[in-house]
Amino acid sequence: MGPTAAARALAPPVYRVEGLTKTYGTGANAVQALRGVDLVAQAGAMIVLLGPSGSGKSTLLNILGGLDHATAGHAWFHDRDVTAFDDDALTEYRRRSVGFVFQFYNLVASLTARENIALITEISDHPMDPAAALALVGLETRLDHFPAQLSGGEQQRVAIARAIAKRPEVLLCDEPTGALDSHTGTRVLAALDQVNRELGTTVFVITHNAVIADVADEVLLFGDGRITGRRHNARRAAPLALTW
Ligand SMILES: Nc1ncnc2c1ncn2[C@@H]1O[C@H](COP(=O)(O)OP(=O)(O)OP(=O)(O)O)[C@@H](O)[C@H]1O
Description:
Layout: H1 5-10, E1 13-24, E2 31-42, E3 46-50, H2 57-64, E4 72-77, E5 80-81, H3 87-97, E6 98-101, H4 113-121, H5 130-136, H6 152-164, E7 170-174, H7 182-199, E8 202-206, H8 212-215, E9 218-223, E10 226-232
Parallel strand pairs: 3-8, 3-9, 6-7, 7-8
Antiparallel strand pairs: 1-2, 1-4, 4-5, 9-10
């Protein structure tokens, strides 16, 4: 089981972000994607980012995940400033510490669910068994199915299993439900909820699916490159109960 809410509150933060700014382009073409973001993410928290298109949500996740560089400000992962990492440190950090889930699943069509995950676990230090990772997202009966034999929601759950099988400390999910209807999207969010509760992985998720707000520990509202509101769920809702 993951840490309780009380244990999480005492845990040191996994991220501390101060004055994070991102400007794309220069001069008349400059776009201010982030205008000074501050946040603290407790280890083991489920954090949801909500806000209109273009408000900076993806930019923040990309910088936290070491996929993009900040223009100014800091993002500490424990005591190390990700914004100061060189390319080698970024590669190492992404490989060891961060799992990514995107809108599109990017599974290898010629490999089964289990084999897609084994691709990652073969190059990890302390991986989960691919079958255990798939069981965690409710796909224990789909181990030997190919992506084309799985629904969109099932494929996304394979992508989640792949992302967590290397046991990353954080899981960054950019619109994982974007291509799915709301019922299927809710199942995908239930898989993320399960991962967060069982493994204690710190999860950030961008989604427009309404059920997420109750499942999260914290909801961050974005507007025009800033966090414009925060809601903390002191008593997080019970796990999303589902038959997969
Ligand atoms: N590589 C880039 N070059 C130039 N501008 C960019 C780039 N990436 C993002 N932007 C701009 O930065 C702003 C923030 O974009 P971002 O993708 O972070 O928003 P978002 O809140 O995730 O939006 P969405 O919900 O549509 O994905 C937008 O105005 C976007 O057009």
